[in-house]
Every structure is written in C-alpha cells, then in structure tokens.
Amino acid sequence: MASALLHIAVQAADFDAAEEAKRLTAGRKDVGALVQFIGYCRDENGTLSALELEHYPGMAEAEISRISQEAIERFGLIGMSAVHRFGKIAPGEQIVLISAAASHRQAAFDGANFVMDFLKTSAPFWKKEHAADGSEGGWVEARDADDAAREKWK
Amino acid sequence: MASALLHIAVQAADFDAAEEAKRLTAGRKDVGALVQFIGYCRDENGTLSALELEHYPGMAEAEISRISQEAIERFGLIGMSAVHRFGKIAPGEQIVLISAAASHRQAAFDGANFVMDFLKTSAPFWKKEHAADGSEGGWVEARDADDAAREKWK
Amino acid sequence: MTKLIYFAWVRERIGKGEEELELPETVRTVSDLLVHLKTLGDEYEEALKFPEAIRVALDQEHADHGELVAGVKEIGLFPPMTGG
Amino acid sequence: MTKLIYFAWVRERIGKGEEELELPETVRTVSDLLVHLKTLGDEYEEALKFPEAIRVALDQEHADHGELVAGVKEIGLFPPMTGG
C-alpha cells in the first residue's frame, strides 16, 4: 500500500474546506469516501463576543501529526488533513477542519471522528472566552465528556 | 427549539459541498459542528469505466427526506442537507453528499453517518457498472455489510 | 387498473419500465401479486424467480410481502438498493 | 539551564510566558519540579496550587508527573487542553 497523504497546518488565517477536499481527492480514482469535520465558534446564546485560542507552537503541529498518523494506520486511510487556527476567532467563524479520505465510508467517518476526539484532549490548544458585555471571560474548562469520548476508541 | 433546516436534492448534475455547508451555517452563530460526507465513484483498480445510477423518481426524494428527518430528531440536528446524483458517473466524480450541522460534534458525526447507513439500504437507487474493457458490467449487488451497518443504530 | 413500475434488473428482465394492469381479485397481498405476475410470461418468470430477492414499494413506501395491495395506485418492484 | 514554558492560566498566574532556570539536583521528576517551582514565589504558588491539574510536556511530548526531567531541554506547563 502506498503511503498515505498527510497534511497538517496550525495557522491564524481562515481555511477553505474545498481546498483540503481537493488536496486529498483531486485526480484520484481510489477514494470512495471523504468525511470533513468543521468546528465553528458559537456565540453561546449571544453571551460570547470571541474566542481567543492559544497554542504551543511546534508541539501543536507535532501532536496533531501524531494523532493523524495513528488514524491513518488504524483505519487504513488514503489521506488525512488537519487544520487548526489560533488567535482571536469570532462567533460563526471556523476553528478546525479535519478531512479523512478512504476507500470506504466507515473508515472515513471513524478517521475524522478519532482525530477530533484525541485532538480535543491531547493537542496543546487553550480557549479563552471574551464576553459580549465587555467583561473578561475566563479560560474554557476541559470537559469530562471529551475525556469520555476519547475512551470509546480503547 | 426552532425547526431544523432540511434540504433534499436528487439530481443528474454535480454538486458543490461548499454551497451546502453555506446553506446550513451562513449567518448562524449556534452551529458548533458541521460534518460532510462525500461519496465518490471509484475505478476499482482500473476495471470500471463508469457507474450508472438508476433511481425511483419521487420515492427517492421521499425516502431520503424521511431518513434525514429521523436523523434530525434523533440527534437534535440544527440542519441536514442530502444530495444524491443519478445517471452516468465517471470514476473520481462525486455521487452523494450528506451535510449535518449541530451544536456539538458527536451529533453532527452521528447524523451524517446515520443518514448514509440508511440511505445505502433504503433509498431507491441502483448502481450498474460499466467495465473498462467495454463489456457490459452487471448490477452492483447489495452488501451484507451495509445491512449490518444499519443495525448498529437499533 | 394498477400501475406497476420496475427498476434495475427487474426492469431489464421484464423488458419494460412500467405498465398498467388489472389485478384479479385473487391478488390480495404482495406475495399473491408476485405469484400472479409469474403467470404473465417467461420474462416475468425469469425476473421474479427468487421472490425473496424482490423489494416492493406500495405508493412509493417500502412494504413487506405480506401487505395488502387493495387500493394501492402504484406498485414498484426492484432488487435490493445499492445507492450512496 | 532548562527552558520552562507556560501556557493559558498557568502563564497568566506566573506572569511570564517562559524563562530559563537552573534546576537543583533534588529535582528528579516532574513532581519534584512542581514542588520546587512553588518555592520561587507567591505567583508560582498560586499557579501550581493544584498540581494534579497541571499538564506537562517534556521536549514537547506529553509526560506523567513521575517522569524524570534529567537531560530535558524544554519543559511546558499548562492546564488541560481545550482545542478543537
């Protein structure tokens, strides 16, 4: 089996899902399924004016790469692309994009889902909330549900 | 809870995943997660020159709509779009697009995955293969694995 | 008259996409219909020789072979689906 | 000298993003390091008062609190991650 395509980016700029889809599928005739996950900033019923994402440069890329490589091997993916933004992000804007290409649909679903579950708990990013009323919001707390989500892959 | 957005299309023309993403998320600040599944025509290691998709007009739309509505209710989706093509489709071309928008990631993953599993076994579409060597290929046989995939939602 | 509509290899084997038929009163269920259709000619016999492989829609809704066909306007017959 | 690098509320409470420190020989494990840092001032005491909430990376790889820090060039300290 030829080595799978892996693309990782950690960037302040916005991203284009269609571009990542193209990166994994253009000119190929062996890809039967592509699953893309896009995470957005929500306004929490109007209480949030922005999220500020801090990251650990170098380690963020390395950790996402490690998780993605594990997904490629575990589910036999043809390609995986993971893009994660940092900096200030307004409600409605995109934060993260995971794209998984495979021959068959379940591998593509599982690959993207697996990467999101591990990224949430292992990739060194932290979210700070800016409140709509101008007060300084706090750091988002890690959710037990995210740890539980990761456990399902054991 | 406001009623969810539902868009269904059964068409010969190609589709644009970015357009469906926009339909479900543009101007919204309550969507936290979008999962898109795209199914492509594979060339089966060069043996296939095209797929020909036959469908039951009317029933195809109704059945996909029914499955999508069930996913919206079951997973609390904010929006669901399902586009399925018919007619002759060449290797590398897109066949089907499922887009599921939700507040949280697992609902979006489950919604898209659920619709694909039921669409495979319940939506009235049939694939005929055209072989690369010019011989007439046969009708694709239903896979037991697809029935099994549907059972996981019981 | 009832509209019969065929898809995929059921259509190819019967040799037509649809037709209008007057169903005899003995045809109460989908199973009865499949038995009756096989009397209409070799092409029907060939298309329906494994009735358990035939899926049925009554007025565009999936139906079991035990369901009644009385009052149904359109009956679709086809192999297991392979979309997606 | 070892490079210490802090993120999120650990960074805010300590009041700096990174620093170079000479670690005493008594600091063998990550746990020892957290105990040692708390002696450096109130801001460290405040940032690290619940050591079990502190995640650690040794040369940019996740590490348990029992791991040895000898030979490590860069140690990252931060709260549980909330990306994605």
Q: What percentage of amino acids of chain A are in beta strands?
A: 25-35%
| Main sheet: strand order of chain A | 1-4-6-2
Determine the most extensive contact between two protein chains. Answer: A-B, 34 and 34 residues
Can you tell me the CATH superfamily of chain A? Molybdopterin biosynthesis MoaE subunit
Task: Write down the CATH class of chain C.
Answer: Alpha Beta
Broad CATH class of chain A: Alpha Beta
Taken together, the total number of domains of chain C comes to 1
What tags apply to this protein structure?
heterotetramer, A: 154 residues, alpha+beta, Aldehyde Oxidoreductase, domain 3, 4-stranded mixed beta sheet, 4-stranded antiparallel beta sheet, 4 helices, globular, C: 84 residues, Ubiquitin-like (UB roll), 5-stranded mixed beta sheet, 3 helices
Describe the structure.
The complex is a heterotetramer, with two copies of chain A (154 residues) and two copies of chain C (84 residues). Chain A is of the alpha+beta class. Chain A is built from four helices and eight strands, in the order βαββαβββαββα. Chain A has helices spanning 17-25, 59-75, 105-122, 144-151, and strands spanning 5-11, 33-40, 48-55, 79-85, 87-89, 94-102, 125-131, 136-139. In chain A, the strands form two sheets. Chain A has a four-stranded mixed sheet, sandwiched between helices. In chain A, α2 (59-75) runs antiparallel to α3 (105-122) and α3 crosses α4 (144-151). The longest helix of chain A has 18 residues, at 105-122. The two termini of chain A are 26 Å apart. Chain C is an alpha+beta fold and 84 residues long. Chain C has a single domain (2-78), classed as Ubiquitin-like (UB roll) (Roll). Chain C has helices at residues 8-14, 30-37, 42-47; strands at residues 2-6, 18-21, 55-58, 61-63, 74-78. In chain C, a hairpin with a 2-residue loop joins β3 and β4. Chains A and B meet through α1, β2 and α3 of A and α1, β2 and α3 of B. β2 of chain A pairs antiparallel with β2 (33-40) of chain B.
